[in-house]
Amino acid sequence: MRTTIADSKDYRGTVHKLSRDIISDWLGQLQAATKTDTKSAYLMVSGNCVEILRCFDILPTFPEINALQLAIRKNSLPYIIKAEEIGYASDNCAYVKADIGYTLDGGIGEDGTIPKPDLIVCNFVGCNVYIKWFEHCAEIMDVPLVMLDIPFLREDEPSKEDTQYVITQLKELIAKCEDLTGKKFDMDRLREHLAYSARAEQGWAKAKNLCKARPAPYDAYFDAINMMGPINALRGTKEAADFFDAAVEQYEHIVEQGLGVVDDERFRIVVEGPPPYPYYRNFRGLFEAWGAVAVQSTYSTVGGTWENGFCHDPERPLESIAEQMIIHNLCNRSMIERYKQIHQYITDWHADALVIHSVKSCRLFSAGQGDMREHFIRDLGIPTLMVESDLEDPRYYAEAQLKNRIDAFFEALTYKRLRSTAAAEAAAAAATQGD
Amino acid sequence: MTIDEIVLHSRSLLDMKPSQVIKKTQETYPNVRGFAVFPVYAPHEIIHAAGLMPVGLYGAGDQLEITHADSRFQSFICSIAKSTLELFLADEMDGFVGIAFSSICDVARNLASVVSRNTEGIYVEYLHLPQNMASEQSQTYTRSEYERFRRKLAEHVGRPITDAAISESLKLYNEQRRLIRAIYAYRQDHPGSISAAELTCITKAGTRMMPGDYLTILKDVMEQLPQRPAHARDTVRVVVEGAFCEQPPIELIEAIEAAGCEIRDDDMMLGWRLFTGDVSEQGDPLTALANAYLNESVYCSTRHDYYHPRTEGLLARVRDSGAKAVLFTPAKFCEPALLDYVLFKRCLDDKGVPHLKLEFEEKMWTFEAPRTEVETFAESMLFD
Ligand code: SF4
Ligand code: SF4
After folding, report:
1. Whether B77 contacts chain A with CB within 8 A
2. A70: left (phi over 0), alpha (psi -120 to 50) or beta
3. ipTM for the predicted complex
4. pLDDT, block means (10 residues), chain B with 384 residues
5. How far is CA B326 from CA A176, A272, B196, B264, B275, in A?
6. Each residue of A94-126: pLDDT tens digit?
7. Are A370 and A300 in contact (CB under 8 A)?
8. N or C end: fewer C-beta atoms under 10 angstroms in chain B?
9. What is the arrangement of strands in the sheet containing B325-328, beginning at the earlier edge strand?
10. Best to test chain A binding among B78, B89, B132, B311 (most A CBs inside 10 Å)
């Protein structure tokens, strides 16, 4: 069946709407909490342990999501500038700057959109900027900080001391939450939340795997954001689990119908690196113009690499939370592991090319991406494009330049394809003549 | 050697590429091989106890043209990352068994991967040093990380690294750190007896010598310092902050001093003098090293210590050293230093301590501009 834009926009809309609804609901709770004494805590997205906070009815708040939303609504620049005025450098991660600028501007607290946290839980999972960011939040808002130091995955498996270190820190966090809320920790409640998490994670895996279909039912980079909010921020709730059931059903339906993201899926790409949120639609348009669809992306796995089959285990609550934090998310794994992850995506998701979006802000992703490009082009022979801008700071987005690079890349791919088709036809013709 | 000769000798060591340092050392110790330590810190004692020479790898300064590494690391990455990779790509690491990186920042972490992918036969270690000093499990974890390093290093060198050998090394490094502390203290009491540029050369060169030989040098310095005339000038007393990883060019230190500042204390070469006192020489040496890292480290931008905030550390450093101002010297693009600057600045502004920020990079050829900036800053303070 031929795919049509009208159909595709419709289904993109359905999952998008479901996601928007539950995310808006959560944001509404945050807004309401600015005026009440509902307890809330800061957390980082990658490899988080949000389920523990849920056991105490502590509302989770994610400064990264705050920064993301400021950018996608094209509101980030004034806050970035505000932060630079108090000493942040132009070279610092702009996620931090936008969030801190917003905080200084009164966005957090009684008159803002996000409650002032009662606790800052620094889940240091890979990104060292997390530590600084949360140190700054703690200092500026005068809020206590709990450090969860997650040992980087530096061997194939974490050692038993790595895991024990994390579990002990989780217990220490639990004790802090008990103090904060006056509620007693209930392991059965944690199991319930983890069961919801596992259901959502299985849904995530199914949805991601559905992109192996040709055409892919959604764009695993640009549309994956619809799943990232629910899996990272709302994980452990019934709403998030239900969302994934519905999203999978929707995507399965689309696959059955043979619908694609664009009329004609001409190129299947894997995208590495976060997107330029201030120009999300424009950037997407540059790929869609070529019928290029992301069938996998690394950015979508900052919270977890659930497509590989891991999910939280209610029977091993703290152990599985620790494993998720140490092993099963992109941020806590090395570049070399990321190369493997991308290669697996290209092979198993049948991609034609790799696109690296190198963002200045995020050195966790970007530092060394030149080496990644070398590796994919020279060692693996995979067509690879690397373009640069930023995930938060609109000043680094140069559309004309990006368009030139992207157009040239896909033109070359088109030409290469034509040549190989022509060569195959010539070979077939020669074979027939020889008959 | 006299102090002047030591400084000259140190400068000549700093002018060498790492492979040349090993060659030179092999003239006296024919079988020795090097093990590089990327800043900020690694337990040098374990490396030394393996029969290797721990070598501080602070990039290549202006010694090396960057021809390969620029295509691997983008323009917005600090110079130490690029020149360190270049050393490997340009075969300037001959004689090294391996290199240890640690969890200081996102760049260093990715650099460890890139180095390991682009080298053969080199053992690349990435140590996850703790960021939680206060968990009940912190000590066990930290010790286990050192144990893991010991085990892997022993596999690479093909012989066990015994507790006894580590304890012996610990004594050497304790003495080394003690002497460096003593020289810093002497300089504070006798301004001008040894310049910061001279002292930095010596501390830096110390990471390119066998620790036993370095001890002799430090003792020589300590012994001769009283014979050096202390000449207090009309200067502004400052603390230099932000140079814990990539090292400012010696010329920048000279420019700061020439511009009328007396450097009372600093965080240069921090990892080699990280501890406030001696590491315990009693009992299990790995536990002692773990305890020292957790409980007796100087504050540092790459180490989170919730109960001992860095801002307090800096204020104490200013107070204890009798400094009147702070010069921030972050390496260009150094995220930890640039982020810390914000909280430091806030705290210093609050306490009325003047400060100035000077970014630097390896390939800096002229130091006139920072010198003028520091001069203006110093003058404004002298006439305040
Ligand atoms: S460096 Fe990257 S991962 Fe870290 S806070 Fe910034 S955007 Fe997030
Ligand atoms: S100079 Fe700064 S950013 Fe660069 S490796 Fe060192 S700590 Fe990391």
Report:
1. yes
2. alpha
3. 0.96
4. 96 96 97 97 98 95 89 95 96 97 98 97 97 98 98 97 98 98 96 95 97 97 93 88 96 96 96 97 98 97 97 98 97 97 98 97 89 95 76
5. 37, 41, 15, 10, 22
6. 999 999 999 999 999 999 999 999 999 999 999
7. no
8. C
9. B261-266, B236-241, B325-328, B355-357
10. B132
Q: Which of A:196-255 have CB within 8 Å of B?
A: none
How many whole angstroms from A130 Cα to the centroid of ligand 1?
7
**Cα angle value B288/B290/B293 (rounded, 5°):** 110
CB-closest option in A152, A339, A366 to B74: A366
Range list of β-strands (E), chain B: 34-37, 53-56, 96-102, 123-127, 236-241, 261-266, 325-328, 355-357
Spatial separation of the C-alpha atoms in residues A62 and A392, rounded to whole Å: 16
A198 close to ligand 1 (CB < 6 Angstrom): no
- If contacts are CB pairs under 8 Å, which of residues 120-139 in chain B contact chain A? 126-128, 130-132, 134-138
Q: How close does chain A come to B336, measured CA to CA in Å? A: 7
Produce one character per residue of B157-185: b if its CB has 16 or more CB atoms within 10 Å, e if not: beeebeeebbbebbebbbbbbebbeebbe
Please report the domains of chain B, with CATH numbers, ordered by start residue: 17-164 (3.40.50.11890)
Write phi, then psi, for A211 (nearest 5 degrees).
-75, -5
SS3 A70: helix
Across the interface, whether the CB atoms of B341 and A87 are under 8 A apart is answered yes
Q: Cα of A328 to ligand 1 centre, how many Å?
A: 18
For the stretch A131-163, what's the b/e string if a residue is b when 16 or more beta carbons lie within 10 angstroms of its beta carbon? Answer: bbbbbbbbbbeebebbbbbbbbbbeeebbebbb
**DSSP code per residue over B329-365:** -PBTT-HHHHHHHHHHHHHHHHHT--EEE--B-SS--
Which of B68, B75, B117, B334 is best to mutate for the A interface (most A CBs within 10 A)?
Answer: B117
Is the minimum CB–CB distance between A157 and chain B shorter than 8 Å? no
